[in-house]
Amino acid sequence: xxxxxxxxxxxxxxxxxxxxxxxxxxxxxxxxxxxxxxxxxxxxxxxxxxxxxxxxxxxxxxxxxxxxxxxxxxxxxxxxxxxxxxxxxxxxxxxxxxxxxxxxxxxxxxxxxxxxxxxxxxxxxxxxxxxxxxxxxxxxxxxxxxxxxxxxxxxxxxxxxxxxxxxxxxxxxxxxxxxxxxxxxxxxxxxxxxxxxxxxxxxxxxxxxxxxxxxxxxxxxxxxxxxxxxxxxxxxxxxxxxxxxxxxxxxxxxxxxxxxxxxxxxx
Length: 267
Ligand SMILES: Nc1ncnc2c1ncn2[C@@H]1O[C@H](COP(=O)(O)OP(=O)(O)OP(=O)(O)O)[C@@H](O)[C@H]1O
Ligand SMILES: [Mg+2]
Description:
With about 270 residues, the protein is α/β, with parallel strands linked by helices. Helix content is about 40%, strand content about 25%. The protein is built from 11 helices and 10 strands. Helix 4 packs parallel to helix 7 (about 170-180). The protein is globular.
């Protein structure tokens, strides 16, 4: 890959930045429907009657403080934690009891909190791990997806042979997102994109996500402690407090709500 080509990709990413998310197709059926979901660990209940929807192509934020249950909710959605009650429907299928691998194959991909890359593998090897559940797992299809992921996140192409453990924090997050894209999801869930990263690095990642959203029409579920970052990007948002959905609505309304600004933005 020549530097010229990389420059073109980089320019594309930077110049198409637009903070207004594309409106989802409200006529379409919802992609994800969660109803009265309750779950927890052993005897300890963490989530109570959580209900939420994500339309196709919609960007939805779930925000809440440390320990509110955000990651627990994502574990339940992606089949890593068994729901105690309630239902999860994805692309019209009841996936409440599905195993994680089957859910990835259906098109829901989860970028976990803390990224969970294999530090001793290269960027490219980490991305190939993301293709393991591909429906059409042919070599050619995986090569195409790898190329596609590098086109969407061009900085990774330059670093494809670098060990993931030697990447900067922002590059590692980019690598985790690219790995999530390798299963060709319809919904990409990102748990704490901004955690531990400098504001300018977070801005770069969000610009890359805007770009991917526009090009791919993917749905995104952005889960964040940082209320401002997530709600600025989303069409709609849900506030999770102590395992309950405390408020929900258009992201702008939540961002402008005096209660939320007082509780989460120290105003
Ligand atoms: N594997 C586990 N076993 C037992 N309890 C757990 C486990 N994981 C999380 N918990 C508990 O569940 C509650 C919710 O944790 P969770 O990680 O879902 O919160 P969170 O909103 O993602 O927090 P953060 O913003 O810090 O990531 C906490 O009380 C936590 O201690
Ligand atoms: Mg968490």
